[in-house]
Design a protein that fits this description.
single chain, 164 residues, 4-stranded antiparallel beta sheet, two-stranded antiparallel sheet, 3 helices, 20% strand, globular
Length: 164
């Protein structure tokens, strides 16, 4: 089996920022890394769930709405993935994300948090979501990172897989 490209990133050197995870089939997957993996606590499940609802709402109502394919949290809870139709640079995504975060900080409620609209409607935490948003916004404005550090992986057959 081939190693999944995201598993070739050295997560011990990954800083909060925005990265291009992959580009294919006319789509760009952006890695919005909110916390430093394995160095800082992951985003609490209820906070990242609220972040997902708010980010998805904002992006799907923004000027870029026709190019948004997916907005959702990473399984490791250290960030979000946003899949866009190709044509957006990391800097474009940085500007959109900062606008989104500023908007999120003004919200008094999380959209779609009723049993009819959410599969886990009790798992939300707007105050903690806003805390993470403030911290991430500060990082995007003051200490921006966008270049992955590749990790060399050796496959069972001895071949080296390094693609990042």
């Amino acid at each position: 089996m081939e190693v999944i490209q995201s598993f070739t990133i050295d997560h011990t050197h990954l800083k909060p920022g925005i990265y291009v995870s992959r580009e294919d089939k006319g789509l760009t997957t952006f890695d919005l890394r909110i916390t430093e993996p394995n160095q800082e606590p992951a985003v609490a499940p209820a906070a990242i769930h609220s972040m997902e609802h708010l980010m998805a709402t904002w992006f799907r109502n923004s000027d870029a709405k026709d190019d948004v394919v997916y907005v959702g949290p990473m399984g490791c809870l250290t960030g979000m993935y946003i899949i866009m139709r190709s044509g957006y640079s990391v800097e474009d995504m940085r500007q959109l994300t900062m606008e989104c975060l500023k908007w999120m900080l003004t919200q008094d409620k999380v959209p779609a948090t009723e049993p009819q609209t959410c599969g886990n409607y009790l798992l939300h935490d707007l105050p903690m979501c806003k805390w993470e948003c403030r911290r991430y916004l500060h990082r995007l404005q003051n200490d921006f990172h966008s270049e992955y550090t590749p990790l060399q992986v050796t496959l069972d057959d001895g071949k080296v897989f390094a693609d990042a």
